[in-house]
Automatic annotation (TrEMBL):
This is RADX protein. It holds the Pfam family RADX. The lineage of its organism: Eukaryota, Metazoa, Chordata, Craniata, Vertebrata. GO terms for molecular function: single-stranded DNA binding. It comes from Bucco capensis. InterPro entries: NA-bd_OB-fold, RADX.
Amino acid sequence: SKVTSLGQLEMTWRSRVHFHPLLVRVLHKARLRYYGKPEKKTDMPYQAYFEVADGSGMVSMVLWNSLCPEWYHSMKVGTVLLLEQYAIKPSYPFKTQPTPGDSQMKRFATIEISLNVRDPPSKISIIPEELVKPEWGLPEVKYRFITRSELDALPNNHSCDVIGLVTFVGRVERARKKEHGEDFWLYRWAHAIDGTSDQPFILELFATSQPDVFEHIHPMTYLVCTQMRVVRDLTENPSSTVYLTTSNESQIFITGCHKGQPYTKDTKVKNFIQWTKTQNEADQMKKAVMGGYYPFPRPPDNFLKY
């Protein structure tokens, strides 16, 4: 069938009602958002943002309501989609923006693709990777992996991906979303090492839309975290309190989830796997810790400073 491109859509969308099909690859996936309110009568008040791209550039795509439980878990980073009967809307200006792995990629920031059950009823097809043709010109998923030795030189709020061997994972804690609200964020602290530094990555992992992974992070698993943000305490000693926290587009993977993921081709991931082959499992197990209270950033050593 006749397929259009994101570049053509951006130029012509206001003058059209019906659009040709689109072939795109998912490059980023945000957490599932529930927007239900007692006074509103939406059956399934869910929304999920994806960043999708073809050869002409990248655009936001939003999945609405009952399409979320049906499609959210099938649309992984790297998945190729054929979209038909979608709507084009002006983009929502306040959404979070992931940092693309390919800094040269053009971003269409004025529009977003809207997928709904009706008006019009969107048709979504997943194209298996073995049927994807090179002539379609779809971009590959690219990452920004860093090693622990590179972390100390990175600025506050820098976006990166990491892989490491988990040596510590804390209990699940919770923080209020708003000061007097009833809603909580769930999070846990973890340490992961990659052999490039004596220090571990300190990771603040918020529960994303992957409860099966979040609950099963344990010592000795290979942990991959994408779209993490560097957090530095710029007031105190900057090197002592650097850690990484999840963003809205973070994805977390543990041993058992890695097969077939696009990051397995990344050079730094391959280097990490080579390093793990040189490690003695029993020695690492002795150092591993699980659970307990983890105050971070650390309070000062004496009460007067505190």
